[in-house]
Structure formats: structure tokens, C-alpha cells
């Protein structure tokens, strides 16, 4: 959520170059886990229904692209090394940009630079 505004601007600026998708994964900062001030009140997901309900917080923020939800086995997050978050660009089914792991490595600015070269 911290850099959602930057992500949304990417979607606006590059929707003619790329299709965007958010995969909602396990909550990194659940209120019954490692929490910080001013966090959204989401507890650790115990089942898929809870994860789907938690994803609604993101839906309400309107990221301007589709949102899908990872399964409870965290298959997508594990395969993409996305815990707690990571940005990717895929082209023709292949990874052409792999961002650093978040939160510190989560850089919409790097994705912007990469996508600018694709215009």
C-alpha cells in the first residue's frame, strides 16, 4: 500500500505498452504477526476465504488493474520469490524484468525505466 500511488501511475502511463496484474499473497504485516503503526487491520489468513476478504482492502484502493489471489499454499509467491512483494515484467511468457525483493527493493521507478525502453 505504501507505494500504491506510484504503481497506479505506472498503470496509467504504460497501459498502452503492458497489461498489469496484482497477485495478492500472504499478508506480510498481519496485526497478529509482525505489525507496524498505521497498518491495515488484517490478521494472518487461515483459509482462502480470509485471504479473499483481505484482498478487498486492495480492491477498494482501485489499483487500476485486475487483482488475483494466491492460493493458501503460496504457490505463486514461492515460485516468483515474492514474499513480501516483488515487481516483474513478463513478455511472451518469459521474465524480462525481475525487481528486487520488497519492501526496500520494491521499485516502481525501476519498472518505469524498463517500460520506457519498450515504448
TrEMBL record:
Family per similarity comment: Belongs to the iodothyronine deiodinase family.
One Gene Ontology BP term is: hormone biosynthetic process
Q: Tell me, what does this protein do in biology? A: Responsible for the deiodination of T4 (3,5,3',5'-tetraiodothyronine).
Q: What protein name is recorded for this chain?
A: Iodothyronine deiodinase
What residue range is the signal peptide? none
Q: Which GO terms describe its molecular function?
A: thyroxine 5'-deiodinase activity
Name the UniProt key words of this record, in alphabetical order: Oxidoreductase, Selenocysteine, Thyroid hormones biosynthesis
Q: Which reaction does it catalyse?
A: 3-iodo-L-thyronine + iodide + A + H(+) = 3,3'-diiodo-L-thyronine + AH2; 3,3',5'-triiodo-L-thyronine sulfate + iodide + A + H(+) = L-thyroxine sulfate + AH2; 3-iodothyronamine + iodide + A + H(+) = 3,3'-diiodothyronamine + AH2; 3'-iodothyronamine + iodide + A + H(+) = 3',5'-diiodothyronamine + AH2
- Species this chain originates from: Hucho hucho
Amino acid at each position: 500500500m505504501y507505494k500504491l500511488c506510484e504503481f497506479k501511475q505506472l498503470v496509467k502511463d504504460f497501459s498502452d505498452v503492458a497489461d498489469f496484474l496484482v497477485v495478492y499473497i500472504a499478508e506480510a504485516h498481519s496485526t497478529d504477526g509482525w505489525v507496524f503503526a498505521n497498518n491495515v487491520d488484517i490478521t494472518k489468513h487461515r483459509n482462502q476465504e480470509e485471504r479473499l476478504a483481505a484482498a478487498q482492502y486492495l480492491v477498494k484502493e482501485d489499483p487500476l488493474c485486475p487483482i488475483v489471489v494466491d492460493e493458501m499454499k503460496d504457490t505463486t509467491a514461492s515460485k516468483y520469490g515474492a514474499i513480501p512483494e516483488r515487481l516483474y515484467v513478463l513478455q511472451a511468457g518469459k521474465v524480462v524484468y525481475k525487481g528486487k525483493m520488497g519492501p526496500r527493493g520494491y521499485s516502481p521507478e525501476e519498472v518505469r525505466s524498463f517500460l520506457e525502453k519498450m515504448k
